[in-house]
Amino acid sequence: MWHPETHTFYMPFRECTVTLQDVAFQLGLPVYGWAVTGCLGEFEKFMEGGRPTWEWFQDLFSELPPPNKRFRVLPADATEDTVRIYAHAYIMMLLSTRLFGDKSANQVHIRWLPFVANLDDMGRYSWGSAALACLYQCMCRVTNRNVTNLAGPLYLLQSWIF
N or C: which end of the chain has fewer CB within 10 A? Predict the structure, then answer.
């Protein structure tokens, strides 16, 4: 049984929990570095100047999202810029659907734009800490008996169990 006060499972044999070491080992994510907190603050800084979100998206990806909301298959003769654009899109998709997924499971949240804008800085963030915090938050949310669905980095929980 999950206890939100201590972020631990109480098992008949002992208490146990997912730790930062587990996250680093199982997912290979950095657990030291810049905090991935204040996503909205970073987003607000990113959005300074009052430009519409679609303009920021277009600056980052050099095009607006396709009408079907999916990037096409990367062409075999893709330029370096095209590969960069697809890398940004893929990382945003991983952040929104795998690491910090929500119940939609198929939408990419715009809040990840500031983090993906500079690929060189991606490795400086403590993504493992953020993933663990997200898992704890999801587990605490689901202890409410009115909650029927669970979202978040559940594969982390699954791999930890096994």
Answer: C
Tell me the C-alpha to C-alpha distance, in Å, between residue 77 and each of 2, 73, 80, 87, 123: 51, 11, 10, 15, 28
Two tokens at 83? 């590969």
Domain layout of the chain by residue ranges: 1-36+125-161, 46-123
Coil, helix or strand for 143?
coil
pLDDT digits (tens, 9 = 90+) for 121-146: 888 999 999 888 888 888 887 777 78
DSSP for 131-157 reads: HHHHHHHHHHHHTSTT-----S-HHHH
* Helix/strand/coil percentages in the chain, nearest 5: 50, 5, 45
pTM recorded for the entire structure: 0.74
Angle between helices 20-27 and 154-161 (to 10 degrees): 90
Going by C-alpha positions, the residue among 101, 154, 130, 107 that lies closest to residue 42 is: 130
Which pair of structure tokens corresponds to residue 33?
């570095």
